[in-house]
Design goal:
The chain has 471 residues and is an alpha+beta fold. It folds into two domains: 8-205 and 249-445, no CATH class; 206-248, no CATH class. The protein contains eleven helices and 18 strands. A hairpin with a 3-residue loop joins strand 16 and strand 17. Helix 1 (56-72) packs antiparallel against helix 4 and helix 6 packs antiparallel against helix 8 (326-340).
């Protein structure tokens, strides 16, 4: 298919609120990593809550599925599917069409290997997370069928990779990656890290018709309704028969949660003023480095020499959770859970215990950005059915806690740019435990001065007694 010069690689962002890293504290509770290095074991988080739980059965199921996947591949594919667990390879992912990714792609696998790959994803993720993966892949097939379709779009381009050796006792990572979809899950005995996660979709809403065809409907700026059937503009306002079809909104759980949170905050003028961020946002800030096409901005620390760093301090970050009313606070938790609940239940429960502890929430900020010329963001459902859809571009929301950082942004469409439509990007990061904290020191995380570095299968130092969440 014809390439699209106006692809996601042109999407950039400006965030004037990023600060420099600072903090105090040190790592503790040493244990031995897979390479023999001594590091923190993740037994507690800073608020004292337990994060080590017995999940041998859950991890063992993922290990079995990973080994079955590897066994289903050809010898040549196995060589690309199982790689060393190094920082450079862990960071080799992109949400852009094309680019470098680890592992064989789905369309090149045998039918048996495709089944094994999906079985692995289903075991590793929650039902919601697996369904979201499949819906994002369906959306990518929709835009791949358009006349502007990029060779980097489509569900056949999902890559599956194993970094390290699947084990119930030593460290390894599962990576699932394609345009608009990235899962990075690290296992290390009874400890697991689920981030970074990137979820996006274009179009936001679509229908798979009873005959297997696709339908995308929307409204042009002039108010004219249009329909794209199997990627082609029908140039007609005639209704398409959707009987027996299925409507999808790939990021609807996240969008709805963000919309509810923004609506709750905007209803309180004091909190709305405090939550408004300076600057403009055309993309997530803490995603890939678009210059390198990888996660090379990680760990977002000035001490690590990064130009993009996590926010610190008490100003310019939005409104504190503690300043919010009961309904607003509930909406914050619901938004966090919309991302975390993509993970297996035992992992999600443990991470949420850390993210939503009293101490963590007390230090969590919520901020939003607005489109140029607007005073409020808009995260309306099915935005492309509105004649002014492009006016929502730049609507942005960020949840910024001691560990959890989530961003959601409304962007200009790529496949449907000529229609002046929009699409979504989001990222979920754990400031202390991305990539299982294998390559993050306490200083990198901006939360302490503990020691320890990761690499080549070793588990990096984690601040405040360790930050990995076991499943």
């Amino acid at each position: 298919m014809m390439g699209c010069s106006g692809d996601d690689s042109s999407e950039t962002s400006t965030d004037t609120d990023a600060g420099s890293d600072a903090g105090s504290g040190s790592g503790s509770d040493a244990t031995t990593g897979a390479d023999g290095s001594t590091t923190t074991d993740g037994s507690t988080v800073s608020d004292g809550s337990t994060v080590n739980v017995d999940a041998s059965a859950a991890t063992a199921a993922v290990v079995a599925a990973a080994n079955a996947f590897l066994a289903s591949l050809t010898t040549a594919q196995q060589a690309t599917a199982q790689l060393a667990f190094t920082e450079a390879l862990a960071e080799t992912w992109t949400n852009l069409p094309g680019g470098n990714r680890n592992g064989p792609q789905f369309e090149d696998m045998s039918t048996a290997a495709q089944t094994a790959a999906l079985d692995l994803a289903q075991v590793a993720l929650s039902t919601a997370g697996y369904d979201e993966m499949q819906n994002i892949r369906r959306a990518d097939d929709v835009i791949a069928s358009t006349t502007s379709g990029s060779s980097g779009w489509g569900s056949g381009l999902t890559h599956f990779a194993i970094l390290g050796t699947p084990s119930t006792s030593t460290v390894w990572m599962l990576q699932i990656c394609q345009h608009h979809l990235v899962y990075n899950i690290v296992y290390n005995g009874n400890m697991v890290s689920a981030t970074p996660v990137f979820l996006g979709t274009e179009p936001p809403n679509f229908t798979i018709l009873a005959d297997g065809g696709t339908l995308v409907t929307g409204v042009l700026p002039a108010g004219t309704a249009v329909s794209f059937v199997n990627g082609a503009n029908t140039n007609s306002t005639a209704a398409v028969d959707t009987t027996g079809g299925t409507a999808y909104g790939a990021l609807e759980p996240q969008r709805a949660a963000v919309d509810a949170l923004a609506t709750a905050i905007l209803a309180d003028t004091t909190n709305a003023s405090a939550a408004k961020l300076s600057g403009s946002f055309s993309d997530v800030v803490y995603g890939i480095n678009t210059s390198s096409g990888s996660d090379s901005n990680f760990p977002f620390s000035s001490t690590a020499g990064n130009s993009v760093v996590y926010p610190t301090g008490t100003t310019g970050r939005g409104v504190l959770y503690s300043a919010l009313g009961t309904a607003e606070q509930a909406a914050v938790k619901a938004a966090i859970e919309a991302w975390v609940d993509t993970q297996a239940a035992d992992i999600a429960t443990t991470l949420l215990a850390a993210y939503e502890s009293d101490d963590a929430l007390a230090a969590t900020y919520i901020g939003y950005g607005v489109p140029q010329g607007a005073t409020t963001p808009s995260f309306v459902s099915n935005p492309n059915t509105q004649a002014n859809a492009l006016d929502y571009q730049g609507s942005y929301l960020r949840i910024d806690g001691p560990r959890v950082l989530i961003e959601f942004v409304v962007q200009e469409a790529v496949a449907f740019r000529d229609q002046s439509w929009v699409h979504y990007h989001s990222v979920w990061r754990d400031k202390a435990a991305d990539y299982g904290a294998e390559f993050t020191t306490a200083v990198d995380a901006g939360t302490g001065t503990g020691t320890g570095t990761g690499g080549d299968g070793g588990m990096g130092g984690m601040p405040d007694g360790g930050m990995m969440a076991p499943p």
